[in-house]
């Protein structure tokens, strides 16, 4: 199968940045060893909307006035929709950069992340940032600004138990958007999870980020009989996911086999695949969301093309009345140091609740 790595978008971004005389971010480097591996997940934070609020308030107390001005914006600020998964050398981002935090502030940030994500979600962030550290010594790292300190946090609205607010954290291959209402997590849509490389070792720690999501989709596809596979199989691998950053209004055409045409065991495999994404957020909303999705499962479509192996061209989409999940595996890498080690883009959308319906 042909390689589908979308180098054209990257090349266009680079050309635009270089034509302007400078890349989007040219901040001083810090030693990636100071960030990676990130601190272990702190389960004592008891992730929830209320815990997110308290941890955000504690983090804000460590900041200077100037830093608070950078990190806090209106919940309806247009910047909230201008997130990206592209490298920092191509795209400017809103919010406070991790590389501009001191040790105490970083500690409070990771406490916040433990309060705001499920353990699985936290580990996926850890894997994406470790992949960035791996790429930081690549021959393209300087111009693309591949570095684990190049991730940004922004608060939209004021973290408080009596107010609606949201947080956004992202950088290369990462874009998390979670909304808190009435001190509960309301949505994590839209959110992007990706990595390059996918399976690697850094500082003695082995990472296998996103690959389990790929394998979950394959497990479902492999469980289909011949007729079901014919209904589920797409004709080609897309060049990139269609519902990612900048495409909030995109709803792909439905394709593949429906949940109504699956056996009960196959339906459970479909739900298990969906939960790989939904479970990134705290249980208080993940459990509610899974109940919602299960109720519409007969109308949820599953479409697949490709192989199960990392570093192969493969894609699947799960789509229902309120849900879109896309998973794309590339057989090519941008970084020469990551050649053959996998490259993933994935997207989660709640079509009825992007950004908590608080943006304008």
Structural summary, described in words:
By secondary structure, this protein is an alpha+beta fold. It has two domains: 9-208, no CATH class; 211-357, no CATH class. It is 32% helix and 20% strand. It has ten helices and 14 strands. The protein has helices at residues 7-19, 49-61, 65-71, 103-116, 119-135, 141-144, 211-222, 226-232, 264-278, 283-295, and strands at residues 72-73, 96-97, 151-156, 165-171, 174-181, 184-187, 191-195, 199-202, 205-208, 257-258, 301-306, 314-320, 323-329, 344-350. Strands 1, 2, 3, 4, 5, 6, 7, 10, 11, 12, 13 and 14 form a twelve-stranded mixed sheet that branches. The protein has a two-stranded antiparallel ribbon with strand order 8-9. β3 (151-156) and β4 form a beta hairpin. α2 (49-61) packs antiparallel against α4 (103-116) and α9 (264-278) packs antiparallel against α10. The protein is globular and about 60 Å long. The N and C termini lie far apart (42 Å). Residues 1-30 have low confidence and may be disordered.
Radius of gyration: 20 Å
Mean pLDDT over all positions: 91
Number of strands: 14
Structural class: alpha+beta
Give the low-confidence spans.
1-30
| General form | globular
Report the portion of residues in β strands.
15-25%
Percent of residues in helices: 25-40%
Return the domain count: 2
Calculate the terminal CA-CA distance, rounded to whole Å.
42 Å
**Strand and helix order:** HHHEEHHHEEEEEEEHHEHHEEEE
Largest sheet: 12 strands, mixed
Structure annotation, total helices: 10
Protein name: DUF3500 domain-containing protein
Organism: Ruegeria haliotis
Pfam family, one: DUF3500
Keywords: Signal
